[in-house]
Specification:
heterodimer; A: about 625 residues; mainly alpha; Cytochrome C Oxidase, Chain A; 8 strands; disordered N terminus; disordered C terminus; B: about 290 residues; alpha+beta; Four Helix Bundle (Hemerythrin (Met), subunit A); 5-stranded antiparallel beta sheet; 5 strands; elongated
Chain lengths: ~625, ~290
């Protein structure tokens, strides 16, 4: 489709002649706030998720001050926070240990559950999946709306918890018992309006949201695929979201049960997670006892580990789409990718206890989980290898989305390979809870998933708005982000190998371990360059924010398929109207038919019928459904 | 484009949308209750000998409730079948019976069984004081029989003020029948029929007591799991009743537009109801019988 013809279709569907929903104009509230349209809900998720991501990052920037200059007055911002949150948070501009703990716990919680999951899974899934499978909407649009509203309410409760007496939850994103059971309790605290209890209540809302979303995604992919869209013609992104939805569907409820139990412990006085003979502040606690702190860890990590794949699989899906599109050749090993994703999803349910090597579960249990953890690296390596091989021999277009997607590959590779020592319980005994762990999983989620998210935003922005984001400011966003990411997380591997603990309030200043030198700089003094890199990275996000909003109204107008891609979403108008497609699409071929020989253009869309005598490439051999 | 397969099945999957949705939702629910039941197993296996009580619940009442739920699972299927045969008034009758069963279950659970527990008292004794109350506990006999010891004395608390008033130094407990003759196996739990506490009043000094409360969630992990699981299950019953009531009163609108659509809705709600029933089938033996 060339530019002129797309402009004419644009004009045609601007009037929406045959879409009965547009006969009566929806009010602003129905259209943008209480919308049941999957695209609007996707954008709601995207915007709120990105705001939460930036907010979570702000919390970390505050912590980086305390780590680099422990006990020093935080200029301006410290006073500001002291005025808002009181002396419990900042004492004369110096961060209190309690506030530091709150920041740590909320950084993790917000980034994972209010940032990445809503953006990578809910936002892209909602916006892109129905378009890619040729569906008019999600199967249950009202439930979809309820899902966003539950998420939004959970987010608000999480934010409100900063303002209650005692501040937000302090138990880390894992909320290990018995500490989190007994935190924020006592005569000075409200029984409900305290940090930890609000954290639990917010979680129940977030789990409800993810349950509704997951049911919707799976049902949509099973039921609403367009005619001819067989399972093996689904874009890999759809497969990734499909597996992710199953992980959320089945892994979150056990955590919900654990949260209900912790809520009972805190509000009704039960002892699910409190052992007998517990002494707090020198006095025995009046509880029945007999509970098990380990039970919480098991239930938490039963979610916690699949959650890791919830964070990474949508990212892999996004990267797959962008790689195929920009290398102008089919994704290498499509079927291996699909089966690897399925195996990954299954295995992710039986590796959870590798987060618990230090609890003394016993060698038999450890050996089992160590083995499954080793096995799960195989599908991950298959996926990453297939991506790398996809680059081979391609005439690569280094567009902005492609820059982020290409950067994802080595960054995720570093994150994945550095996880292997942690999978062995003997090595992990040393590295557990050090900065090494922080560096390892941040390489996966920060320059991994978040880069994939940025890639996705730049890639699908034209579909959502009909305009393109600026390339120049995209570069200004990408290069500093890439450099800063590595400046932040590479030194943390060194700090971790010195044995620096991840939860030290003083950044290691008072600890002998942290005074050992690596490359002439002590472990503690590495904090400063890391912090500077983090702050610079914060600044580097400003071009993105400006570019994003500026491009919505002022960006360069483009046609319906600016990237010359093959999948179904690019056959719909940009932005797609309510109901998505002007007529129901019919699919004739696989998702990545780039550079087919004997054609005048280097991409063949899924809706193009097979020509007579055409040698069919990549036609699925395994057909599930019609 | 409109969303397809809302009422008729998609040919290749053989399912309409809501049916896929409800099965996925139920899969999630299995994991939710699975988490709670694994907590039950974990805590029960971890409990010290004598600290996991037996036979404290009213078995005939529980059996009655089980029968009520199973019966309502039958009537909801009959309601669905009536719709399939397009007999709307009969559907209303079966639906009314189903709703009634759900309400009976909740009333028995919340109005009778739970309050009976709040009214029951138990005192865990300090290990050093067990000897002093041997005539109620019969631990020597249990030791000889190879059975776990008794560490708790339960019954009806006659001086309820003792719970909060530190000036009262002892509890006056109308003993449960097992403590009146602790060596007689006939007196021991479980009793199939409910046996009320006797008029045999024992005085238990607070100094000898490790911890004493009514049978509330705080009492021990058995009651913590019991109240949490039956409470969550009760919420599910309540949810089902609300949905059924909606279908009972407003189903006519859907029925007049497309009878099959209402049949599908009842089928989906019925699937949920069967699941709620199934959870109870696990709850009943775990808490009442084992």
């Amino acid at each position: 489709m060339d530019v002129s013809s797309s402009v004419s279709t644009h004009a045609a569907h601007d009037s929406h002649p045959h879409d009965e929903h547009d006969h009566h104009e929806l009010s602003f509230l129905r259209k943008y706030v209480f919308s049941t349209d999957h695209k609007v809900i996707g954008l709601q998720y995207l915007i709120s998720g990105l705001i939460f991501l930036f907010f979570g990052f702000l919390l970390m920037m505050l912590m980086r001050w305390q780590l680099a200059f422990p006990g020093t007055r935080l200029p301006v911002i410290g006073t500001l926070i002291e005025n808002v949150l009181g002396q419990g948070a900042m004492n004369n501009g110096v961060m209190t240990p309690e506030f530091y703990n709150s920041l740590g716990a909320m950084h993790g919680t917000i980034m994972i559950f209010l940032g990445i999951v809503p953006v990578a899974f809910a936002a892209f899934g909602n916006f892109v999946v129905p378009l890619q499978i040729g569906a008019p909407d999600m199967t249950f649009p009202k439930i979809n709306m309820a899902s966003y509203q539950a998420f939004f309410a959970g987010g608000i409760v999480m934010l409100v918890s900063f303002f209650v007496p005692g501040g937000a939850a302090k138990g880390g994103w894992t909320s290990y018992t018995p500490l989190s059971d007994i935190a924020d309790k006592g005569p000075t605290y409200h029984v409900i309006f305290n940090g930890q209890t609000l954290w639990l209540i917010a979680f129940i809302m977030l789990i409800t949201s993810s349950l509704l979303g997951a049911v919707n995604f799976i049902a949509t992919i099973i039921q609403l695929r367009a005619k001819g869209m067989t399972w093996m013609r689904l874009p890999f992104f759809v497969w990734a979201q499909f597996v992710t939805a199953f992980l959320l569907l089945l892994a979150f409820p056990p955590l919900e049960s654990a949260i209900v139990m912790q809520l009972m412990d805190r509000v009704a006085g039960t002892s699910f997670f409190l052992p007998s003979g517990l002494i707090v502040n020198g006095a025995a606690v009046s509880i029945s006892g007999g509970g098990s702190p380990l039970l919480w860890q098991h239930l938490f990590w039963f979610l916690g580990h699949p959650e890791v794949y919830v964070l990474i699989l949508p990212g892999m899906g996004i990267v797959a789409e962008i790689l195929a599109n920009n290398t102008r050749k089919p994704l290498w090993g499509y079927k291996s990718l699909v089966f690897a994703a399925l195996v990954l999803g299954f295995l992710s349910f039986i590796v959870w206890a590798h987060h618990m090597w230090l609890t003394g579960m016993g060698t038999v249990v450890s050996a089992f989980f160590q083995t499954t953890t080793m096995i799960i690296s195989i599908p991950s390596v298959i996926i990453l290898s297939a991506f790398f091989i996809s680059l081979w021999g391609g005439s690569i277009r280094f567009t902005v989305p492609m820059l982020f997607a290409t950067a994802f590959l080595p960054m995720f590779g570093i994150g994945g390979l550095t996880g292997i020592p942690l999978a062995f319980n003997s090595a992990d005994l040393y590295l557990h809870d050090t900065y090494y762990v922080i560096a390892h999983f941040h390489y996966i989620v920060a320059p991994g998933t978040i880069f994939a998210v940025f890639a996705g935003v730049y890639y699908w922005f034209p579909k959502a708005t009909g305009r393109k984001m600026s390339d120049f400011w995209g570069h200004v966003h990408f290069w500093p982000s890439l450099v800063c990411m590595n400046c932040i997380f590479l030194p943390m591997f060194l700090q971790g190998m010195l044995g620096m603990h991840r939860r030290w309030y003083d950044g290691g200043q008072g600890w002998t371990l942290a005074s050992e030198k690596v490359w002439g700089v002590s472990g503690f003094h590495w904090n400063l360059p890391i912090s500077i890199a983090a702050w610079v990275m914060g600044v580097a996000q400003i071009p993105f924010i400006i570019n994003f909003f500026w491009s919505i109204w002022r960006g360069e107008k483009v046609n319906d398929n600016p990237w010359e891609a093959t999948t179904l979403e690019w056959t719909a108008p940009s932005p797609p109207p309510h109901g998505n497609f002007l007529e129901a699409p019919v699919v004739y071929r696989g998702p990545y038919e780039y550079s087919l020989p004997g054609r005048d253009k280097d991409y063949t869309m899924q809706t193009e019928p097979i020509k007579e005598g055409e040698r069919v490439l990549h036609e699925p051999t395994m057909s599930l459904g019609h | 484009m409109e969303i397809p397969y809302t009422v008729t099945a998609r040919p290749d999957t053989g399912l309409w949308n809501a049916k896929v949705g409800i099965w996925l939702f139920l899969a999630s629910e299995v994991m939710l209750f699975g988490g709670l039941f694994s907590a039950y197993i974990f805590l029960r296996l971890d409990a010290e000998p004598g600290y996991w009580p037996h036979g404290l619940l009213n078995v005939p009442v529980g059996t009655f409730n089980t029968a009520v739920l199973i019966f309502s699972s039958v009537t909801v299927v009959l309601a669905w079948a009536s719709l399939k045969m397009r007999r709307y008034s009969r559907y209303r009758v079966y639906m009314a019976i189903t709703i009634l069963c759900g309400v009976i279950f909740l009333v028995v659970k919340l109005g009778y069984e739970w309050p009976q527990k709040y009214d029951h008292f138990g005192a865990y004794l300090k290990t050093s004081s067990l000897e002093k109350y041997e005539r109620y506990l019969g631990n020597k006999h249990l030791l000889a029989e190879g059975l776990p010891p008794r560490v708790e004395i339960t019954g009806h608390l006659h001086n309820e003020a003792a719970l909060d008033d530190p000036k009262i130094k002892e509890y006056e407990v109308g003993l449960d029948v097992v403590y009146t003759d602790p060596t007689d196996p006939k007196m021991d739990r479980p009793h199939f029929f409910f046996v009320p506490p006797t008029e045999h009043v024992a005085t238990i000094e607070k100094a000898d007591v490790e911890r004493a409360t009514m049978f509330l969630p705080t009492h021990n992990n058995y009651f913590a799991t019991y109240f949490t699981i039956t409470g969550l299950h009760g919420l599910h019953v309540l949810g089902g009743v609300i949905v059924f009531t909606y279908l009972f009163f407003f189903g006519g609108i859907t029925y007049r537009q497309n009878p099959e659509h209402l049949a599908n809705r009842v089928e989906v709600a019925g699937l949920f109801w069967h699941f709620v029933d199934l959870v109870w089938i696990f709850v009943f033996p775990l808490f009442y019988l084992l």
